[in-house]
TrEMBL record, chains A, B, C, D:
Gene3D superfamilies: Aspartate Aminotransferase, domain 1 (3.90.1150.10), Type I PLP-dependent aspartate aminotransferase-like (Major domain) (3.40.640.10). The lineage of its organism: Bacteria, Pseudomonadati, Pseudomonadota, Gammaproteobacteria, Oceanospirillales. It comes from the Bacteria. Belongs to the class-III pyridoxal-phosphate-dependent aminotransferase family. This is Diaminobutyrate--2-oxoglutarate transaminase. It is an enzyme of class 2 (transferase). Pathway: Amine and polyamine biosynthesis; ectoine biosynthesis; L-ectoine from L-aspartate 4-semialdehyde: step 1/3. Its EC number is 2.6.1.76. Keywords: Aminotransferase, Pyridoxal phosphate, Transferase. PROSITE patterns: AA_TRANSFER_CLASS_3. It comes from Oceanobacter antarcticus.
Amino acid sequence: MGIFKDIESNVRGYCRAFPVVFRKAHNATLVDDQGKEYVDFLGGAGTLNYGHNNPEFKQALIDYIESDGITHGLDMHTEAKRDFLETFQSHILEPRGMDYKVQFTGPTGTNAVEAALKIARMNTGRQTIVSFTNGFHGVTQGAAAVTANGYYKKANGMPTTGVQFMPFDGYLGDFDTLKYFEKALEDGSSGLGHPAAVIVECIQGEGGLNVASAEWMRGLQALCRRHDMLLIVDDIQAGCGRSGTFFSFEEFDIQPDIITLSKSLGGYGLPMAVVLLKEKYDTWKPGEHNGTFRGNNHAFVTARRALETYWSDDRFATEVKHKAFLLKNRLKSIQARHAGDCKHKGRGIMQGLEFASGEVASEITELAFSRGLIIETSGSDDQVVKILTPLTIEEANLNKGLDILESCIDEVLAERLRVANAS
Amino acid sequence: MGIFKDIESNVRGYCRAFPVVFRKAHNATLVDDQGKEYVDFLGGAGTLNYGHNNPEFKQALIDYIESDGITHGLDMHTEAKRDFLETFQSHILEPRGMDYKVQFTGPTGTNAVEAALKIARMNTGRQTIVSFTNGFHGVTQGAAAVTANGYYKKANGMPTTGVQFMPFDGYLGDFDTLKYFEKALEDGSSGLGHPAAVIVECIQGEGGLNVASAEWMRGLQALCRRHDMLLIVDDIQAGCGRSGTFFSFEEFDIQPDIITLSKSLGGYGLPMAVVLLKEKYDTWKPGEHNGTFRGNNHAFVTARRALETYWSDDRFATEVKHKAFLLKNRLKSIQARHAGDCKHKGRGIMQGLEFASGEVASEITELAFSRGLIIETSGSDDQVVKILTPLTIEEANLNKGLDILESCIDEVLAERLRVANAS
Amino acid sequence: MGIFKDIESNVRGYCRAFPVVFRKAHNATLVDDQGKEYVDFLGGAGTLNYGHNNPEFKQALIDYIESDGITHGLDMHTEAKRDFLETFQSHILEPRGMDYKVQFTGPTGTNAVEAALKIARMNTGRQTIVSFTNGFHGVTQGAAAVTANGYYKKANGMPTTGVQFMPFDGYLGDFDTLKYFEKALEDGSSGLGHPAAVIVECIQGEGGLNVASAEWMRGLQALCRRHDMLLIVDDIQAGCGRSGTFFSFEEFDIQPDIITLSKSLGGYGLPMAVVLLKEKYDTWKPGEHNGTFRGNNHAFVTARRALETYWSDDRFATEVKHKAFLLKNRLKSIQARHAGDCKHKGRGIMQGLEFASGEVASEITELAFSRGLIIETSGSDDQVVKILTPLTIEEANLNKGLDILESCIDEVLAERLRVANAS
Amino acid sequence: MGIFKDIESNVRGYCRAFPVVFRKAHNATLVDDQGKEYVDFLGGAGTLNYGHNNPEFKQALIDYIESDGITHGLDMHTEAKRDFLETFQSHILEPRGMDYKVQFTGPTGTNAVEAALKIARMNTGRQTIVSFTNGFHGVTQGAAAVTANGYYKKANGMPTTGVQFMPFDGYLGDFDTLKYFEKALEDGSSGLGHPAAVIVECIQGEGGLNVASAEWMRGLQALCRRHDMLLIVDDIQAGCGRSGTFFSFEEFDIQPDIITLSKSLGGYGLPMAVVLLKEKYDTWKPGEHNGTFRGNNHAFVTARRALETYWSDDRFATEVKHKAFLLKNRLKSIQARHAGDCKHKGRGIMQGLEFASGEVASEITELAFSRGLIIETSGSDDQVVKILTPLTIEEANLNKGLDILESCIDEVLAERLRVANAS
């Protein structure tokens, strides 16, 4: 691994937690250059909902490459883009009664967020965006401003401009955080002014698997409507099926004004991002938000296949919900056995356990890695062990991973108890 | 094309100038869904230096995919990344005596620029960045702030913060713009303060093919050294061989503190971006600048092949210089025939002709498209017809494209003259 | 009044509520150019704590002028400044065990606030300031950013930068707002980051007479200490005796790091402002925060006399507390008679009644003006009728004013009830 | 002087250069507490155009105070304000054919500048302000952003937002700086965008007595008109007669959209400031830019007297021009004797000599102080010895001061020459 240490920047991160060199992968299994296999509960941080190198899409991609299909086409029309758009329309938007324009942005989540903030500001002529505690939306300057984590904010090196933070659902215990938000909106002297938009995740991935309730999300949308603010749902991590439905807010009966999607949208782990926006807000002039890689046609090919394969009917969603149910039961039972030491969080296949500190959580994930499980932490103190495994994971593999995880939790907590009692 | 009009956002741009649906492509040839072929003088806006679907890389990519090589791995170590790093080190950095760390950012140019600005601000504890007239660096908030074009700046919707613009080489005619910059730096009361860094392109692509001279670039580096500012060269469009050397500044005998690369780096048109930074500035903490698609392993595979294929010796560079020479002669002769109506600009295979207005330039490129040539305009008024064809273009195809272009120029200028005389 | 309408800017405000031309004034009595007298419950918005044209200071000022004492001296040493500083030290700081440096800023409250924010940012190297809902700190750009009122914020024309707002004491009903603040500070991912400082008023004057409790203020100071943030108390309106003690926080047993004073500091209604800062934060370099009128020597003369006259012993404070007690009783009794229609707010001689809307409050103050009482509204909707009469008001005059006020309240509320019942 | 050292903030500035305690003053003479007299060539940094304690205004002020005239009246109508407005209208605006609304801002120059920037931004809906190299406009956040001096900018602690700097007249030697400005405006990709307004001083006081030519100022106004930007002339230091006419731009035949005045406007050295704005830009809503001391009625009384005494006819202006002529001759002759070592700068009674460094200039002013002359330096390196004496200075006193100054220059330059030759 000398070359990494020699010339890769110190900014590298995940490779420090998982210090091996990976060679190949399939579905929820990673294989390193020694042939060792790992259960993947990381799932590309939400990018590999359909697993590594999904065989359904793989052949389509190879066929496309072999046919010399357009690989890079800026934002010109291509057959691959056309096919993706038609499939997205027929498989996702139409069945859900959703009427949105699709903007292809630079193929990263942060770029989609930047585009969403711009269009919200342009449409309203206002500059303040409301974001929430523990929200994560990216690290480019505009997205970092709406990202709550001080680690990224500090690295951004610029003061937060045009953003005010509000407490997320549950942040103030029993106190209804929307009441505070509403009061601040109605009170012309709250410091909030009249925001252009609200940006929110239904399930906060990086923030520690905090879940917004249906009631809260509906209340938030109502607030946006009453106060003429655009509602932006950042569904980059929680979208594309992870919650059990394609969008994480489907069961809430809301219609955000703007939606950002990325990560698993490309299907195969290939870079792709879109902004969905209601037609009346599609006031862009040609090329106003541009970028070289808006047309990642390989991703269009696999994205389309993903939609066709998994979203033609409700079988996949049902399967995801079933696995989420299994996961929840398992985690709840662990919580029950370690009452007070860990707490279940999340929903869909975006669940985890919160421990007393990032230190405890890290001990667990490090031990797990040594036993063949790749899993990361999240939350403000990295105190939440987070399961983001591919939705397509085989049940056996899921259980195998959970077994490793549970044993590690048991051992780490037991050892900690022993030390505590000894001292 | 109904689906595009129906649901693709109004932000779409290039597809308006080239309103067909493309199916496939090879080297400098694009083919639409009717089978019609086009000479590609656009080259993915600098992304397709090695041509569309370069056969050298294509098989490597297919092999990798077939072997279930890691596609998406966040920023974990993979064999593909290792191989890329080793090749980049051996083929690019070492032979040029360059000692840099490599940071994989989100796979877009704008993301690399954002990372560069952050690290410059963090290293210096200062916030002002100096950018230049007609500079283009991306459209996310931080990059848009250093982008000179008001079209993007306005869409950004936020006031320019922490950025001051200086005139680029030649912007003030015979007046040495570095003298102004130097005076402003030495004068504590110039309004400039003490900037953290300077960001500059050696050849301004979007800005209209303005070329910085070797002397000016050396002077700029000297100014940066004397005044303790970091020199960031944004080589996203002019790099990866387009100027006739791998980096656009190689013949200037300078060593920027930070270099951004993207576009053709991935080789095959796949999204990829890096920041090169001198070790002393690599003060990143793990994950401070993160992103889901930092590890686009498909791009690593093709990027490595591109380096091996084209940068193992100087044959490719020599070939590029030869084509650039042909191009220059041809454009100079057109200029000579239309004295006063067009002006040669640029260097390397990044040359073009400046016309009286964007209107004239657009007439030419529209006519060219109808005749099978894809070529775009650039510059503040889109008044520059810009040739960014793949460096690998066959000479016959290059000449074919130039023939079309020349005939269109002749006709448009003649018609304009006719109308002018008639009125 | 033609000249005002003809050439004074539309920005003029108070004169619209009190559309007469005033000629002279003494203590709490204003006289217009027709000789009509008005009871002054406005008190120069807190500037005339010692009444209009206080005879104790008047002669000192005339003597100083007649002696050709320095009127304008930039920030040079003058006898008048020396005498003021010695008196401020002996009469205010020393008796209270307060060890502060005195910075003379431009002679307006907003200028003192700007200086306070700068020095907090410079001392910490951080940029975020926390301000509170309904806080008012001035209208220059830096002060407007920490001012909560959207009316001023919008006029500022720039996005709020480097400021986050927190709910003031009582803003969330029974929910302890400091708990939210503390959680946000301890949570590295709350969006708040690590602020440089907190700026707060103990009694929010413009914000509608919201009162911070001693416990809350102590908790806030403790929070600042624990989290290494500077505590700035803006005592511009509530200071100089208005609360019943010289500083509004004296009975709270706290020691802010920075205190801003202005308004009644000059004693005679003359422009003057200071920043008090603990010595360790006095890291200013000479002239870093400058301004032409820092040395308003006339104000130094009257300011010193005010301190000598009213703060040599505790008689004045006792008198103020007595009047505050009378005021409270009277307002509480009005509240009792109009249960549900108005609510007592404030403390010291900074009390008032909150009505259902700004409309009701305005009707009352307009009626009051017609009957010879000058009184203004405050609060986010101007719904609070605010009594800021000179602390030196004669009890007879105070009662006269209160009689007028009470009769107006009775009539306006009765008429509103009549109309409501009729419809 | 113990008290100053003990408790006055380190920010104190002028008192360090002139370390005595002043007692009284008349016209251009200051007297310290030991009875020592000084010739005042500082003139309150432009505030004392009519001299210290001008006897013409003194009695009016005392009479007003004795009559209990309104001292502090917020922005209510008073007789003193009415009389000032009528006199300003009849003596200043009407005779010059100027049609402006008068806004009373907080009584400091920086506050007037902040108001001017706000109203420019609100009227245009744009945020960028263009300011010039060496411009000084104040130290509150908005004004500091348009101030060129890095010393204040750094203390401001926030990145410059919404401001771009352009080179002032003469900054680039023979190169016409307006050509650069114009090119940047016409070039949509210059980085400048479409500014809301330009703020400029006709004579840069703090910036080192740089003088804009009539041609340049007319060109600047024409540029503003062509590009729909507001022209703000900051006449705070150069206005009120200092240039030889009331406004510093009168002989240029221009009509700025907005003018800021302060310093000598109050006449007696009392805090006062106004913004003059063309009626169509007076779009303020009531109280949008407010402040406690907008109505400094003492200053209205003396300001009116100043207008009546000195601006009823052209005698005063003629006298000022005559003194400016004497001053210029004297300084030019000094320059001639020390060819190469000092250079004449400025116009009106705002002239000085530029030396090789701030060190030389300081030696001269220190020596001068020891000989009874108070004079300051300005410029980016404090290299300009600046004469800002009261316009009313007696010719004998003027000559006395110039004699001292000349002797100090001769001695300091001679000594420097001696040392240089010796080494």
